[in-house]
Write a structure and sequence with these properties.
The complex is a heterodimer of chains A (362) and B (372).
Chain A (H helix, E strand, L loop, with lengths): L8 H14 L2 H38 L15 H11 L10 H21 L14 H9 L2 H11 L3 H32 L4 H6 L6 H4 L1 H18 L11 H4 L9 H26 L12 H9 L2 H22 L5 H29 L4
Helix pairs in contact in A: 1-2, 2-3, 2-12, 2-14, 3-12, 4-5, 4-6, 4-12, 6-7, 7-10, 7-15, 10-12, 10-15, 12-14
Chain B lengths: L13 E5 L11 E7 L2 E8 L7 H7 L2 H9 L6 H16 L5 H29 L4 H21 L8 E2 L2 E2 L7 H24 L2 H7 L7 H7 L3 H5 L7 H4 L20 H23 L20 E8 L4 E8 L7 E5 L1 H7 L1 H5 L4 H11 L3 H5 L1
Antiparallel strand pairs in B: 1-2, 2-3, 4-5, 6-7, 7-8
The chains are: A mainly alpha (362), B alpha+beta (372).
Amino acid sequence: MYLSIYDFSSFFQSIDNWLTSTFPEPIATIIVWILIGVSAIAFTALLGLSLVYAERKVAAWFQLRIGPNRVGFQGVLQTVADITKLIMKEPLTPGTSDKFLYNLAPFLMMLAPFIVIGALPYAEGLQVMDLNVGVFFVTAVSSIGVLGILISGYSSNNKYSLIGSMRSGAQVVSYELSAGLAIMVIVVMSGSLQFSEIIEAQRDGWWIFKGHLPVWIAFVVFIIAGTAETNRGPFDLAEAESELTAGFHTEYSGIKFAFFFLAEYVNLFIIVVLATTLFLGGWMPLHIGDWEAFNNIADIIPPIFWFLGKVSALIILIMWFKWTFPRLRIDQLLTLEWKYLLPISLVNIVLAAFIILMGWHF
Amino acid sequence: MEETIISPDGTQEYFINMGPQHPSTHGVLRLVLTLDGEIIEKVEPHLGYIHRSIEKMCEKDNYRQIIHLTDRMDYLSAHMNNHAVSLAIENALEVEIPDRAKYIRVIMDELTRISSHTLWWGVMGMDLGAITSFLYGFRDHEYITEIFEETCGARLTMNYNVPGGVMFDIHPNFVKHVKDFIADFKTKLPEYDTLLSGNVIFLERTKGIGILTKEDAISFGVTGPAGRASGFSNDVRKKEPYGIYDQLDFKEILYTDGDTYSRYKARIDEMWESIKIIEQLIDNIPEGDFQAKTRKVIKLPKGEFYQKVETARGELGVYIVSDGKMNPYRMKFRSPGFSNLSALDRMARGGKIADLVAIMSTLDLVVPDIDR
């Protein structure tokens, strides 16, 4: 068994070979499922913990504060302590709520991110399934999340929750349109819906560099729409704390609240990974024309670090939005989508198709 | 309970209790909102959750004790409240207070105004969803609070005024620290504009929102920066100068739009004016006594006495009815917050919930001031 940090496929192939040769076919498949499931849960939990910590540190930098620095080195265990507290708290169910739906909603919230993280490419060979309709699958499945928000607002039997979830429903459904159209530009450029092929198409240059105007527009639109889709500031109307106390999760406590909290961060991660993969070349290193020395050094850095670096940069960008911008109003939010982003995206996709047709891209 | 109104198409109005425990009511204020979806049809403030009967308590306290109570009304303008009561008592007693005390009082008043406005600015940003501004506002608020702590011994409810002057002389470092603060704050105030005033989303959220006409401002008695943003010239410091405001060079900030943005700008500009006032005074504090001699037990002559001052929120009136005893027969405060709140319904109707929050934060409500 040989583990290379540059290409994980041989490592996972050898595990698969060993499993299939040791166990009969059905049992081997079940073991693979269990392994994948456990690592997905572990990865999500780790992701949630580190992103919450990152958010608190980034917020502190913007706000003249130090941030968490007591539990563990530089406060890295602070989120672990917080999550432990949330797990130990009593999960209250309000007496007047619709109990089945109320308890279902947090799981629906977590369901979509759990499925989606399997379809995303992290490095060469580090991907659960490389579907031939990967992009389509991710956008389709991630829409399930809004069901969780709508159900939680409806079943809580709380007026603030209802307003929050209705806002969120309108917002997520609207912004999915322009996010989808922005993704379409890259699909048109790459000629494929498969993540591995989209990344392969960027071997000689990321789409953001060689895609000209349509890709730049699509990138900006996608970042805006993605931020809105994850209900993060300045688009956090669903949980606008100064207006609706906590919006759709007002009535949730303990571990159920932690699910909503975690889902927000995993969704943020998914959006950022999509942006990285589609526009910034995924795990592809940065290559500049014929600078041989630079390109060689870039190749030495393992792809997984390129990937994490790009993802971190985008995450900090989106956190930057949240901690500097005021919140939009609901009608301004919908105006922005339906009157500006959507028409721009529609024109943009035609423009992209035209450029492909004329062969003007690199 | 109010009757549920069912309109002809069978839909009901949506009632929401905003408060008494709510993040943006800044205290125990309860608003009953009647909504049509997100659009506000009626706002009804319900008061009384923090009523401490301060006016009644004044009737059994002597005049020196009353000043302590006024700290607890509008705690962000504590010094101005004290100033108002002290002036009312001094005018009734016809005591001439030393110049040094007058200067110190006005400097303190303006520092209080700046500290109140910085806190307002931070909270305003937070209400609109920009949480970062809260910590920037508190940074400058903290600086002033430390200056207060050094001289007065307290940080928020200073209780520094006494009838006849101020309680102690200023701390030896006071002048230096105030100068340091002014120099520092002049670089910090432009940051406020960078972070919030110029932001596109902020402008969208505030311009043309919650318009209060000049006529409405006058008839509701909306004073302070909120009233002046509607073009209602009501600065007590200009109209009926007290202290040494008549010798100072400063502008009354007037805007005519009367929207949320004008109220915002009026307060930002007021901070610049306060800086100007402090700069004129801080180098020329005259030597001499900081307190005029008054009797230990103060008895006001029979009669009625009224004094108003300009606090950070507007016009605070102190009305004392004395029957010649050592405590007042009746004491009445005309608090700016109460009158300003009364105009909320007029401004918020037809707007969204998010607009209501923005309007409320530019009225700069302090609930203990409304309820007393």
